[in-house]
Amino acid sequence: MSASTESRDRLRIAIQKSGRLADPARALLGACGLSWRESRDRLFCYGEALPIDLLLVRDDDIPGLIADGVCDLGIVGRNVLAEQDLDRRQNGVAPAFRELVPLGFGGCRLALAVPDDWEWRGAGQLANRRIATSYPALLRNWLAEQGIDADVVTLSGSVEIAPRLGQADLICDLVSSGATLAANQLKPVTTLLDSEAVLAGPVAEFEGERALLAELLLRRLDGALRTRHSRLLMFQAERAAIPRLLPLLPDAESPTVLQVDGADRLALQALCHGRLTWQRLEDLKRAGAQGLMVLPVESMLA
């Protein structure tokens, strides 16, 4: 099989080679039943279970690889995808990639952060200020929406130290725990974008074999994401207790109910998509549930 034929018949997914999204991305794809054989340089992983390969790259490169057709899909932070999409639009370049599915890990936010001694009173304070950031397109877009004229100072790294070095008055940067900001005497005041890992793809629809593979992958991803915190809850209860129990399961699908003993004792099983904490189980027990059992859900296909 020629390389060109192989590229048409196989799906390529780019993920971060190293960093905070790398391991969760591989684990999620593994939960979809994918497995790979790695190349010697560990930059390419050949799909074994399915004709779906991995490219291990820098996260900043993923949108461009999708735009150039080097890969078909990518797992990347929404912040990176949105920044590069806005940069293309602001420079008159047609959209080439889009967010397909939020993946629920790698959560953070792009926020303005000011020195601790600032008394924040709103966006009006930013007029004519210098704002350091690694996300100039997103920041300029937000400033335009607010009608604020400010000086955007673009830095590739160590943004949080810019005010202390006299390069900027405040910053616009990613915030996770906030520990880095606190260490540099900064505090977040306004969120510009809530971010997480997303599955990105091209604007154009796939065709042929790749369309079928992409549809299969999206279906499996949906099942893997739905079962991430899903548990099968089983218990018994008197019929009279059911009206008290069901409101305690707002995240559950319609339970299966079986008669156990006579007309009044029932066995219930419900697929719950939220966390079944000890507190929830204790609340159910007080409401009349007996013999509570929680089972993991390995996979689910709608």
Whole-number radius of gyration?
25 Å
Strand tally? 16
Number of domains: 3
Strand order of the largest sheet: 2-3-4-1-5-12-6
Architecture (CATH level 2) name of the largest domain: 3-Layer(aba) Sandwich
Q: CATH-wise, what's the superfamily of the largest domain?
A: Periplasmic binding protein-like II
**Unreliable runs, pLDDT <50, ≥5 residues?**
1-7
Q: Which of globular, elongated, flat, extended, rod-shaped describes the shape?
A: globular
Percentage of β-strand residues: 25-35%
Q: So what's the CATH class of the largest domain?
A: Alpha Beta
Q: Topology as H/E string?
A: HEHEEEHEHEEEHEEHEEHEHEEHE
Distance between the termini: 35 Å
Please identify the structural class as seen in this structure: alpha+beta
Q: Please, could you describe this protein's structure?
A:
This protein is of the alpha+beta class and 302 residues long. The protein folds into three domains: 3-106 and 197-227, D-Maltodextrin-Binding Protein, domain 2 (3-Layer(aba) Sandwich), CATH 3.40.190; 108-194, D-Maltodextrin-Binding Protein, domain 2 (3-Layer(aba) Sandwich); 231-296, Alpha-Beta Plaits (2-Layer Sandwich), CATH 3.30.70.120. It contains nine helices and 16 strands. It has a seven-stranded mixed sheet. A five-stranded mixed sheet has the order 9-8-10-7-11. It has a four-stranded antiparallel sheet with strand order 14-15-13-16, covered by helices on one side. Residues 1-7 have low confidence and may be disordered.
